[in-house]
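Data availability excerpt. The first of two example chains:
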Amino acid sequence: MLFNNVNSIHYESTLLKVRDDAFSIREIGTFHFENAAVQIKAQGKNDCLLLYLRSGHAIVKHSKSEKVILSNEVVLIPLENGVHFLYAQGSGDFLVGTNCPQTELMRNHLRVPSQVDPRHFDEFLLSCQDPMVTESLAKLLKALPVNTNRDAKQRDFIRNALLFMDKNISKRIVLDDITDTIDYSKFHFIRVFDEYIGQTPHQYICDRRLFLARELLAETDLPISEVALRSGIRFTSNFYSHFKRKFKKTPKDFRDQSE
């Protein structure tokens, strides 16, 4: 199973019988990411992951590309080299295909429906040999909301903002760094960000840093003061109080219980 032995994710899935000579679905299910990094190991050469994020968002790294998936978006990801969710939270549906055809959609993956020619989705669906799976996928894609030009522009802006925050999470981040490059006021940026992410930029950055710190505490032997710095929290005293408020444990207690 795709998410077997992967921490910080809850999932339910069903394994299906596959054909050796044609594109078919070998696993289909639902997932819930819990504010964490998720590394999926390399799969078969022509395996692919179709992921629908019903709520939340995820930052995905595949090969040399990084992509933000927002709620009500679908992406197709080849699994030959594995995939790394740098940060993910939210719920949705997924399926794993095998013997995936080298269609235009597979060659130009990590795109959301608004960026894809509908004919490329049709080409992908027609290559599936299981009519029940094809029908369910077609219903899912047709049910996705059609993004207006305004919505598509805002989504692209939120993607860029999240990528900027992620790359600079250990540094000092101010709104001017983000809003100076676009025609959005600070007030408008905060409103749009909250609309799509469910938090203000400040709340998101604070949570992102605390979850990064939790990951470092569990997976490294770095001193707690260094964990705080690498997470973008400059004062250790603030780190202790914020961490305990968020996770109901001190950083030291959390690390001790993770060992």
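And the second chain:
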Amino acid sequence: MFLLYLFVFILFSCSSSENNAGSVVARVNEKKLTKKQLAALTGSRVNDSKTLLLTTNRWVEKTLLYNAAVESGLKKDSEIISKRDRFYEDLLVASFLDIQTKNKINITKKDVSNYYTKNKKSFIRPDDEVFIKHFILPSKKESIKLKKILRQGRGGAEFEKYVEKYNPQTKTLFRQTAESSRVGFIFSGSAGEIVGPKKTGAGFHLFEIMQKHKKGSERGLELVYDEIYERLYKQKSEAIVVSTIDSLYLSSDVFISAEVR
């Protein structure tokens, strides 16, 4: 630990002989890593000593491997050069289309609401659902204690300790999937009920049923808003891409041989 902090102290101490931003913190043969470059690599964690050391070590290792690859002749390998060029072309195209779509797409709340109204049938639940909070605890005693806390009502410092310690998952379960994975018993409970503990090899499972929905019921707009937004964005994005390509065809001299038609 002492060497770690000594490294950071030396790394960012003032120097009377050279510019701080350009001072070298690591070197592999002729290639150098400066303070400024290291700061750019670490980003917001520039003051974290462990991150600085880890990032520097990774830079050294990557540079060593890169040099070895170059010395082996891979930099001149035609297949690698071709892959590089194709990747760069794809990156430019993706960036261009991203700029085109972002500047032209505007989706309002009304757009989302209208889509929901017109397509309600696509938001019908295909199966029974429960929305749960799932705890896995190490002992039955701990499970029963938490179950008592949950029954008394959520909140409070004691409950927050359990959340922080055991990091429960909040998720939606479908009856068909749940029954095949042996947790179908959850569907016998009601909304607001605490089910369990149930022991498995992983520990003691406790389930808080937050919501319960029947097959065939509609998913509310608040639940599918983001999904609808993504659908609309994709539709408009695809339309813009088609329009952009069409305009480029008109303004360009394009030839396609009959042999490939």
